[in-house]
Design goal:
alpha+beta
């Protein structure tokens, strides 16, 4: 109860976070043979990056990318700028060339839940994500070829198809720990010997 007599609304924990706290953390502790529950890998942040190299000649493409990322993540993206000039690409230092969003907390959990249960199953000819795209420290990056796999995107309002890179940053110390964490969430990795 607050001082004014009204009750403060408590926000519901994201479904995936609740599942991790209730069951997955203990299962991972057993599976990885860790002594302390604080050593169990967990999600740190998710970075969604959309490069729009053609935006140097057509600024409206960048506006479309920002709008799409805002709808997909529920957060306003940061517009990324070129750090150096490259004449071959007609690129000047300081040109806007992309947009990125860093998700943390509840938004991160809700995005991951939607990604695994709704978006990835909508990829055409999907054969699983590469199990080798870890960076050596338990973080996983994969690319998506079009934003249309997200149900939030209105097909009729799309001006161009855009790909994006999604990086899942974890507290894992090794790739094996990172993979065990994502496996526990039901990440659709390609099985060994399966065609690409």
């Amino acid at each position: 109860m607050s001082a004014s007599g009204g009750t403060t609304a408590t926000r519901e924990r994201p479904r995936l976070k609740q599942r991790y706290d209730d069951e997955l953390r203990d299962q991972l502790k057993e599976r990885l043979g860790l002594a302390n529950v604080m050593q169990v890998p967990r999600l740190d942040k998710i970075v969604v990056n959309m490069g729009v190299g053609r935006a140097t000649g057509q600024p409206s493409l960048l506006e479309g990318a920002v709008a799409d990322l805002t709808v997909i993540t529920g957060q306003k993206p940061l517009v990324t700028k070129a750090t150096k000039s490259i004449a071959g690409f007609k690129l000047r230092e300081g040109n806007s060339i992309g947009a990125k969003v860093t998700l943390r907390g509840d938004r991160m959990w809700e995005f991951l839940d939607r990604l695994i249960s709704l978006a990835i199953p909508r990829v055409r000819d999907f054969r699983g994500l590469s199990p080798t795209s870890f960076d050596g420290r338990g973080n996983y990056t994969f690319g998506v070829t079009e934003q249309l796999i997200f149900p939030e995107i209105d097909y009729d309002k799309v001006d161009a198809t855009r790909g994006m890179d999604i990086t899942i940053v974890t507290t894992a110390r090794t790739d094996a720990e990172g993979r065990a964490l994502l496996d526990a969430f039901g990440f659709p990795f390609r099985r060994e010997g399966q065609p690409q």
